[in-house]
């Protein structure tokens, strides 16, 4: 599957070159559609590779002690331009600092990226997204809470399933692979933690992530 990534990356590069050379609105839109399709395929391949890696019986996390608050701050800074373009308030509440945990940084970063990205996709203009971190019962807790459109009751029980039927387009047509929440749950559980959600349709969604503190 690794071999599939290179030709798709090549296709994406060629499409970008063609877009610079074509001055025709219809042709440009067709190339944009091709780019989105190839990009979606690449994202699915990357997600499947990550799942395969974690399901390998020899897989072990490469953990290090990290201040979880710094990771949250970095991701909020990274996502703020998108939030501002959608007129969404993206902000942080930290009850304790530092918040030390042992994590494989890039993998756990993927968890929070997925949750923030999900909120950005399903929160309307003028809405809010809060990332709240604190410690409780020797656990580090991160809550990602939004004022978005919420998740229908019938989809909440399957949202963490692989290739879930809960896959939806974002409010602006953003595509998802249907694997993001499955991967987030798998990564959290590898860190001896858990992830839950609370949501009411039309009233927003709250994801709660807990992992052990590094004490």
TrEMBL record:
Would you say which domain of life the source belongs to? Bacteria
Which catalysed reactions does the entry list for this protein?
Answer: ATP + protein L-histidine = ADP + protein N-phospho-L-histidine
The Histidine kinase domain covers which part of the protein?
A: 1-215
One Pfam family of this protein, by short name? HisKA
- InterPro entries to which the protein is assigned, alphabetical: HATPase_C_sf, HATPase_dom, His_kinase_dom, HisK_dim/P_dom, HisK_dim/P_sf, Sig_transdc_His_kin-like_C
Q: Which SUPFAM superfamilies match?
A: ATPase domain of HSP90 chaperone/DNA topoisomerase II/histidine kinase, Homodimeric domain of signal transducing histidine kinase
* An example Gene Ontology molecular-function term: phosphorelay sensor kinase activity
Say which enzyme class the record assigns. Answer: transferase
SMART domains for this protein: HATPase_c, HisKA
EC code: 2.7.13.3
| The protein's name | histidine kinase
What keywords are assigned to this protein? Kinase, Phosphoprotein, Transferase
